[in-house]
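Justification of computing resources. Each target in the renewal requires a structure prediction run like the one illustrated here; the chain below, 126 residues long, is used simply to show the kind of job we budget for.
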Amino acid sequence: MRRILIIAATLFAASAQAETPRDFLARFEKEAGAVASADRGASFFTTKQGGEWSCASCHTGKPTQAGRHAKTDKAITPLAPAANAQRFTDAAKVDKWFRRNCNDTLNRLCSAQEKADVMAWLLALK
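Resulting structure tokens:
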């Protein structure tokens, strides 16, 4: 019984480790079946996507800087991993916020390719 608990604890600890932004880029590229483009990501991020907003409406055109929510004016910490080491380290948060923010800006979910492209651009920022 003790051995089973030790094995279970070890497996849980391994699965609870924080992911990295590069892990998410690899995941989205795999889901898309294509390599990401930072140029497409920059364009997608700054262009209004069918509604009133773009990603930059809240995260600014320079996601290495803090932003403010376009509707609530709530402060938003920098999105780019180079400026905020806590970004893109938790799969549940990444999935939640992509789902929520894509629905707000596109009125639909983002495709894996769109997420990969945005991640590639964010990772290129210094």
